[in-house]
C-alpha cells in the first residue's frame, strides 16, 4: 500500500458522508427508506478508516503523508508577491486515530439512532444531517491548513446548529441552537482574526510552511508578543467549539438536541475539535500563550465540575462533565503534556459517548424522562446499560484497569511536573480537585439512576432494556474503555504502543526566548531528534518521573474518596443530601445556578445590548427625529416648490429613461423585422458608416 | 509537390483526417443501412473521440502544413499550434455533446431515415471549423468558412416540415452569401495590395513595404464583416435571432458555440499573424501601425454587448432570448481580443470553455421543455420549477452562470475577462461590460421568476426525464459548479495553449 492509495482512501472517507447527505436530502421524498443508505455509507467509511489506521501505523509509522494542490493562483499581487492558496491533506498518526474514532462513533450513533429516533417525522433529514456533520468533522481532521480547518469548522458549527434545533417546534431547542451558534461565532471571530494575521504574515495557510517560516525567525509584525497573540486568537476558536470558559454556556443547552447527537457531536467529536486544533497549532504556541491556555482549561474544568455536582438532569450532568473533561485536555495542552491531551481526547471520546448513549438508553426506557429524581433502581431492569455506565464511570473517575485512568493520570502528572518547574501550583490543584468531584458526581448519577428504590413506580414498571441496535454500541464502547487497547501495563501508559509509538511527542518552532525553560533546546540535544521536536530538558524528565508516583496515589485516593462520598450520601444515606444543601445553601445555589454565568451574560451583554439599542432608539426618537422634523418643516416649504419641479421635470426624466429603454428595445425589434432584404440593407448601410467614420492611421 | 512534404503535412492534421474518414464512413453506412440509423451516432462518436485523442496528443506539436514550395519562405496553408488545438479540442467536445443532444432531441428523431444526412452535414461543419481554426492563408480561410457555412445552411433547414425552419435556412443562405461575397471582395483587395494571400507574408509586406492605408482599411473592414457574420457581431448579426429560432435546437446550440468558437479563433489568428510585429516581455502585442484594430473591435464589442442584452430584454421566446444572449456573449469575448495581450487571449480561451458548458446546458433544457410542452414561450413555463424541480434548479444554475455570478463557472470566465481589461487600463470598457451584465441579469432571472415565483397552473404538466437526460444535464452541471470553485486546472490549461506558430 503506498501513500497515494492512502490519500485516495482518505478523500473517499471525506466525500462519502457528503454524498449520502446529498442523496438523502434530494431523494428522501421518493425513497422513504433512504436513511439505510446513510448507515451503509458510514459502515463503509468505518471500514475505510480501519484500513487507513492499519496501513498508516504499519507502513508509515514515522512518516507523514502530505498531499496538496494549488486551489487558486493569484499570480503576482502588488505588495504581497506571489500569492497562491493551497488546499491539502496531512495524514499523520493523530489524523488516522481521529478518523477511526470519528467514524466509529458516527457509525455507532447511526445504528443506535435507528431505534432511538424511530417514528420521528424527519427521520431521513436526521440522517442527512448526521452525514454532513461527519463530512465536516473528517474535513477538520484531515486538513493540512488553517483555511480548510476554518471552512469545515463553520460547517460543523452549522450541522451542530441544525441538530441541536432538530426538534425546532420546541422553543427551548430552537433557542439552544441559536445560543450555540452565536456563542461559537464569538470564538470564531477571534480565530478568523488569528488566521488573517497568519496569512498576511506567511502568505500561506498550510501548517507545515507556517511552522517552517516561524522556525526561520519570521514572526507576525516581527514581534514575539504578536506571535503569542496569534496563538491565543486561534485558540479562541477552540474556546468556542470546546466550550471553555467563558464561552462554555452553549454546551449544556445543546442537550436539547437528540441524545445520540449529544453523544456524537457534543461529547466525542465536535467539541474535541477545539482540542484537536490546539494540538495542530501546538508548534506555534509560545510559553505565554500556553500559560493562558492552561489557565483557561484548568479553570473551566473546575467550574464545570462544581456545577455538575448539583444538577438533576441526567444529560446536564454529563454535559458539565464533558465541559470539565475538555478543560482537562485544554489544560494538558497548556502545560505541554501534548501526548496526554490527545490520549485523553481519545479515551474520553469513547467513555463519554458511551455514557451519553447509555443515558439515551435510560431516557428511552423511561419515556423521555431526564430528571434523575424520577429514576432509581433501574439496575435490575437494564443490566447492560448499567454495566456500560459502571465501566465508563470508573474510567472517567480514573480507576485503574480503565482507559480513563491511563490518560487522566498522565495529564495530572504533567500538570504537577509543570507546577514543579514553573511554580503554577494552582493548575494541579484544580486538576486534583476536579478528579475528586468527577468521581463524586458520576457515582451520584449512577446511584440516583440505577440504585436504590424506584422513585417513579409507574415509569419504572414500563422500563425495559433497550433493543439490540441500541445495546450493541454500548458494548463496543464499553470494551474500548478498558486499558488493554492502549498499553499492556494497566498502570504504565508510557510503555504502551499508543504513547510510545503512535502519538509522537510535541514539536515546537517558536523562538527560544519565548519558550518555557524546560522546553529550550541546546545545540547538542538537537541531534538525534527531528528538527522541530521539543526536547524537554532533563529537569522535565525528572519532574515527570517525580510526579508519577504522587499523582498515582493522589488521584487514586481522590477518585476513591469521591466514589465513597457518593455512596455514603446517596446510597447508604448516612448524610442527607438535602440537609447538606441546606447547610451550605449559598454554595449549593451557586453551583445549581451554574455560577450565575448565564444570568451574568443576560444582565451584561444581552441587557447591555438591549439597553444600548433602547438608548439609541431614544436618541433616534428625540434627537434625530427632532432634527428630522425640524428639517421636515423647512423642507416642506421647499418641497412644495420642488414637488412641482419633480413632477414635471424629474418624473419626466425618469419616465423618459424608461421610455427611452423601451424605445431602444423597440427600435431593435423594429430593426429585426424578419425581412432579409432589410437586414442586408442594414448591413451594407452600417458597413458604409464604418467606412466613413473609421479613420485609417 | 514531393511526397515527403505531403506526408509531413498529413501527419500534422491527423484529427482532420479522422474527421474526414468518419464523414465518409457515415455516408457509406447511411447508404448501406437505409432503414436503421441507430448505429450512425456511435460511429460519429467514435470518430470524434479518436479525433479528440489526436488533438490532445498533438497539442504541443506545431508546424506548417501544405507548404507551397514556390514561395521563398516556408509558410503553409495551415498553421498548427497549441492555440488552434485548444479550439479544436473545444469543438470536438462540443460536437460529442451535440451528438448526444441530437440523439435526445425529438425533432431530429422525427426525421427518421434522414438522420444519416444530419450527421454527415454535422461532420461537414466540424471539418470546416477545424480547417478554419488553423488556416493561415486567406484563401484557406475563405474555403473552410464556406465548407462550414454550406453544411450549416442545410442543417438550419433540416426539418423541412416546419415553415420557420425553411425560412431560417433561406435567410441564412442569402445573408451568408452576401457576407462571404463581401469578405471575398476584401480578400481580393488585400491580395492586390500585398501580392500574397498568406497571413505570414502579409505581415512581412506590411512591416517592410508601404501600402495604401485607405484601401487596406477598406479591405480589412470587408474581411471583418465576413468574420463578424460568423461570430454574429453587431451589425452583422441580423441573421442570428431568426436562424437560431428557426433551426433545430441542437443545431442552434452547435452554431452558438462551435461555429462562434471557430470564428473567434480565425479572427484572433488573423490579427495575430498578419498584424502583430512582436510580443513584449509581459505578453502585450505590438500591432503594426497600419490599421486601428483596437478602436474597431472596441466599438464592435460595445455595440454587440449592448444590443444583444437590450434586445434580449424583450424576448418571450426562449430560443430567441438565448440567441440574443449569445450575441451579447460574443461582445464580451471581443473585449478579450481588444486587450491585445496574452492575458486577454487567455481570458477568451477560458471564457469559451465555460461558455460552451453553460450555453449547451441552457439549450439542452430548452430543448427538453420544448419537446415535451411544444412551446418555447416563457409564459408557458410558469411554475415549472415546482413541477420538475431538477430541471428548474439546473436551468437556474446555467442561467446564473450565464449572468456571471459566483459560485458558477460563468463568474470565473467574466472575472478573467475583466481582470484582463483592468490590467490593460481599459476601465471604461470594463464598466460598460459590467453594466451590461447587470442588464443581462434582468432577462435571465426573469425566466427563473416565471419558473419559481409563479404557482403552476393546471396546464403545466410534469416533464418526465429519462436517465439519459439527467446524466447529460449533470455532466454539464458539475463542471459549471466545480469550475466556479476550483478553476486552476482550466486556467493552467488555457495558459499552456497560448502559443502561436511564429515564423
Could you explain how this protein is built, in words?
The complex is a heterodimer of chains A (697) and B (503). With 697 residues, chain A is mainly alpha-helical. Chain A folds into three domains: 285 residues, no CATH class; 276 residues, no CATH class; 95 residues, no CATH class. Chain A is built from 27 helices and two strands. Chain A has a two-stranded antiparallel ribbon. In chain A, α10 packs antiparallel against α14 and α16 packs antiparallel against α18. By secondary structure, chain B is mainly alpha-helical. Chain B has a domain of 210 residues. Helices cover 74% and strands 3% of the residues of chain B. Chain B has 21 helices and four strands. Chain B has a two-stranded antiparallel ribbon with strand order 1-2. Chains A and B meet through β1, α26 and α27 of A and α8, α10, α11 and α13 of B.
Write the layout of secondary structure elements.
The complex is a heterodimer of chains A (697) and B (503).
Chain A: H1 3-27, H2 35-59, E1 65-77, E2 81-91, H3 93-116, H4 123-142, H5 146-164, H6 171-202, H7 207-215, H8 224-241, H9 250-253, H10 259-268, H11 270-280, H12 287-308, H13 314-334, H14 338-365, H15 378-381, H16 383-397, H17 403-422, H18 426-450, H19 457-462, H20 468-480, H21 497-502, H22 523-526, H23 538-571, H24 577-583, H25 585-592, H26 597-671, H27 676-693
Antiparallel strand pairs in A: 1-2
Chain B: H1 3-12, H2 14-32, H3 40-57, E1 63-67, E2 76-80, H4 82-104, H5 106-109, H6 115-134, H7 138-156, H8 163-194, H9 199-208, H10 213-230, H11 239-246, H12 249-275, E3 276-279, E4 285-287, H13 293-312, H14 318-338, H15 342-373, H16 384-387, H17 389-403, H18 409-423, H19 427-453, H20 467-485, H21 488-496
Antiparallel strand pairs in B: 1-2, 3-4
Helix pairs in contact in B: 2-3, 2-6, 3-4, 4-6, 4-12, 4-15, 6-7, 6-12, 7-8, 7-12, 8-10, 8-11, 9-12, 10-12, 11-12, 11-14, 12-14, 12-15, 13-14, 13-19, 14-15, 14-18, 14-19, 15-17, 15-18, 15-20, 15-21, 17-19, 17-20, 18-20
